[in-house]
Design goal:
- By secondary structure, the chain is an alpha/beta fold.
- The protein has four helices and six strands; from the N terminus they run E-H-E-H-E-H-E-H-E-E.
- A six-stranded mixed β-sheet has the order 2-1-3-4-5-6, sandwiched between helices.
- Helix 1 packs across helix 4.
- The N terminus is likely disordered.
Length: 153
């Protein structure tokens, strides 16, 4: 059973459909209410899509392919995927092989912890990236997918 259950969030009505060139894809079974709270107050208004009916650490290859397809078909070139799992490096390497031609930032941090800072910093970094590629952000550090050798324990 594939993970894409591409439903717009209940609170999407407060976020415009014609957003400012960014998409946030939340991978995981539970809606990150703190992320939504911060985005509602932010000057940048991304399109938000929730995917998956299971937790991000339980994603299989079909689920990852579904998320890659969602990234490919997304109208924006800059995409934040909230992944929040130790398997983020494997997922980044998988996405890099998909030839997506987009700037994709995988947030390995729990964005709920000090959410105002983490969400703001992550969106700011994403907007500044000019090269279309796959990146991971963890503990305030931006890492190109090819510079990480193993998943985070």
């Amino acid at each position: 059973m594939g993970c894409i259950r591409s439903t717009l969030l209940k609170r999407m009505k407060t976020l415009p459909d014609s957003s400012e060139g960014l998409t946030v894809i939340q991978a995981g079974a539970t809606l990150n209410e703190e992320l939504i709270r911060v985005l509602e107050r932010a000057a940048t208004k991304p399109t938000i899509i929730q995917t998956c009916s299971q937790n991000a650490q339980d994603l299989n290859k079909d689920d990852m392919k579904s998320i890659a397809d969602l990234c490919r078909n997304c109208k924006h070139d800059k995409i934040l995927v909230t992944h929040r799992t130790a398997k983020v490096v494997s997922f980044a390497k998988f996405l890099a092989k998909q030839d997506l031609h987009k700037t994709i930032l995988l947030a390995a941090d729990d964005l709920e912890l000090t959410a105002d800072f983490n969400v703001g910093y992550t969106l700011g970094v994403l907007q500044c990236l000019s090269e279309r590629d796959i990146y991971i952000i963890r503990d305030g550090k931006l890492i190109h997918w090819s510079k990480v050798s193993h998943d985070i324990a």
